[in-house]
Write a structure and sequence with these properties.
- This protein is α/β, with parallel strands linked by helices.
- The chain folds into 3 domains: 75 residues, Roll (Ubiquitin-like (UB roll)); 117 residues, 2-Layer Sandwich (Alpha-Beta Plaits); 358 residues, 3-Layer(aba) Sandwich (Rossmann fold).
- 35% of the residues lie in helices and 14% in strands.
- It is built from 20 helices and 19 strands.
- The strands form 6 sheets. Strands 2-1-5-3-4 form a 5-stranded mixed β-sheet, with helices on both faces. Strands 11-10-13-16 form a 4-stranded parallel β-sheet, with helices on both faces. A 4-stranded mixed β-sheet has the order 12-19-18-17.
- A hairpin with a 6-residue loop joins strand 7 and strand 8.
- Helix 9 packs across helix 11 and helix 9 crosses helix 15.
- The longest helix has 22 residues.
- The chain starts with a strand and ends in a 12-residue tail after the last helix.
- 49% of the residues are buried.
Length: 583
């Protein structure tokens, strides 16, 4: 059946688009830009802000282009004086109730409201009046919530509800007192927030941002008694360049390492090495459970937002969760034990900084379970954005930096570890090792295509050593809920499940460079970043975690074997039941 096309005119251009298309979409297909603020494609299409107003001939008033569907013969004007004046009035009203401290705001230079003010030449505010002052919520270790900068676009609310299925925030009160808040206006720390940070990614202003650790890290870097080590997650190298104007998905590993050295870190290591240890322990745990009647399916534990979610929502399924720590926590534990002993360092003087795409890692870092001999495995977590800020503070011209390699002896990693940063990657890496262990062979077919791609849920059956293993990879907590409900209700017979809290995995983490709604429509950000990691894997000399010579050496010299007593002490953890609401 042929798709019905609608013919209309926008700013004098004749356009044909499928029925059901909005004026906004039709205009963008024709290369005509209509400004928006509250709009997020497929997430928040509600027309609340009215910045996207247009004129339609023959109709009174203005049409809201993000929700108004096209009609046959429609004549639209997007840039008349009356349209511009109406948008400026709307913008003036929004700004009049906004905390205007742009010079000190974390989103200055990357704020959609600020960009609109510049676009419409807003040099003064005509409607200044009373503003309600709201307390800033900074009690959580991950997110700061400042409603004084909120524009009530509700993008965060829609993301939390529709994308993640959590609903930790919503609009409360009415009229002038309307605001976005939590149950009983409690801190995000005391409600069902998982600290995934997807709300930050979709907030157009500085109303939501990560709790920064930059000043703590600078202090340690300038302390002559501290031995400061940086470790960087795989997804960071695929996105950091965007903060310096480089194309999305550019691999900046070498420049990133050089920048970290210039910032003053004593050593710069690769969290990918920690990921290889995670695979060794996780693959061993999976095999043990399958062969010895352990709790199945086994579910991955690398995503701290996911772990917080399951602790609050599915505590009865905690036995399904792998006991493996996430890669940066494993690596931190090894740095303060094996590495400290090798280098003759006092572990109390070692300060481990994890550079992560994830703000939930800030929460994970300070979990009581992430300690050994009274010391935390990791001392500070900074996001991709925070590292970019530090580089800019140090006046380093990132794009012209030469490439450098990670430090030895803890800087060698495999291609399997690189793909940890994208959905399906943890599972694929684990299966590469599991199949070699079970068959006793060095198998050459190591790309598990069925668990790759951008779908929120990917199911597959893989044959390993003559045994069929049913697997599923889910990203985004709403998709995780679907899988967990299947398991809880006994409707699933999976043996291995990978879950990432963020849609698309770590490459789309809450701490990654923020893209505007317009950029998200123009580029497939997830695919471009994922392609970068798969490219690193394809070009790697070693693509299986168990073949990493550094990993082999540390097992021989220190850990003894996978699943050993010392491995369990340092590389494994436990979980706890959490209340959704601390009221």
């Amino acid at each position: 059946m042929e798709e019905k096309l609608i013919n209309l005119t926008i700013d004098g251009r004749n356009i044909s688009v499928p029925a059901g298309t909005t004026i906004l979409e039709a205009a963008r297909k024709a290369g005509i830009d209509i400004p928006t603020l509250c709009f997020l494609k497929k997430i928040n299409e509600v027309g609340d802000c009215r910045i996207c107003l247009v004129e339609v001939e023959g109709r009174r008033g203005f049409a809201t282009s993000c929700i108004q569907k096209v009609e046959e013969g429609m004549v639209v004007h997007t840039n008349t004086q009356s349209v511009v004046d109406a948008r400026k009035v709307v913008l003036d009203l929004i700004i009049s109730n906004h905390k205007v401290d742009c010079l000190t705001c974390t989103r200055s230079g990357n704020c959609e409201l600020q960009a609109l003010a510049k676009q419409f030449n807003m040099t003064d505010i005509k409607f200044e009046g009373e503003r309600i002052e709201h307390e800033i919520d900074d009690e959580s270790p991950s997110i700061v919530r400042d409603f004084n900068k909120c524009v009530l676009c509700r993008r965060c609310v829609a993301t939390c509800k529709k994308v993640q299925g959590v609903g930790a925030i919503d609009t409360i009160n009415r009229g002038f007192e309307s605001c976005v808040s939590t149950v009983c206006n409690k801190s995000l720390n005391d409600v069902n927030c998982t600290f995934c940070g997807q709300c930050i990614q979709n907030c157009p202003t500085g109303a939501l941002h990560e709790k920064e650790s930059i000043n703590d890290v600078w202090k340690k870097l300038r302390d002559p008694n501290s031995y400061v080590i940086a470790q960087t997650a795989p997804a960071v190298r695929a996105a950091l360049g965007e903060e310096f104007g480089m194309p999305i998905g550019t691999n900046v590993t070498g420049k990133m390492v050089t920048a970290l050295k210039r910032l003053g870190f004593d050593k710069t290591f690769d969290t990918n090495t920690g990921a290889d240890f995670t695979i060794m322990e996780e693959a061993n745990e999976l095999i043990e459970r399958i062969q010895n009647g352990g709790t199945l399916p086994m579910i991955t534990s690398c995503s701290p937002g996911w772990i917080r979610y399951v602790e609050m929502n599915y505590p009865e399924q905690l036995g399904n969760i792998s006991s493996c720590k996430s890669p940066h926590e494993m690596f931190g534990a090894l740095l303060k034990t094996y590495y400290a002993k090798k280098e003759g360092l006092d572990p109390k003087n070692i300060y481990v900084v994890s550079v992560m795409p994830c703000i939930a890692k800030k929460f994970e870092r300070q979990r009581t379970e992430m300690q050994n001999d009274g010391m935390y495995d990791v001392d500070a977590v900074i996001t991709t954005r925070e590292l970019a800020k530090m580089i800019k503070q140090a006046n380093i011209d990132f794009t012209t930096l030469e490439d450098a390699g990670f430090d030895n002896p803890m800087g060698e990693a495999t291609g399997a570890a690189a793909i940890f940063g994208t959905t399906g990657g943890v599972m694929e890496a684990a299966l590469r090792t599991a199949q070699d262990i079970l068959t006793g062979e060095d198998l050459k077919e190591i790309n598990f295509q069925d668990v790759r791609g951008g779908e929120g849920i990917k199911k597959a059956t893989v044959n390993i050593a003559g045994k069929e293993i049913k697997v599923v990879a889910a990203s985004g907590l709403k998709n995780a809920q679907k899988i967990m409900d299947e398991i809880k209700e006994g409707k699933a017979d999976y043996q291995f499940v990978e879950i990432m809290a963020c849609p698309g995995g770590c490459i789309m983490g809450g701490g990654q460079p923020i893209k505007t709604a317009k950029e998200r429509m123009e580029y497939d950000v997830r695919k471009l970043r994922a392609d970068c990691l798969y490219s690193i894997d394809e070009k790697s000399t070693i693509r299986k975690s168990h073949e990493n010579p550094v990993v082999k050496k540390i097992y021989e010299e220190f850990l003894e074997k996978t699943g050993s007593h010392v491995a369990h002490k340092l590389l494994h953890t436990e979980y706890q039941t959490r209340e959704k609401y601390n009221i």
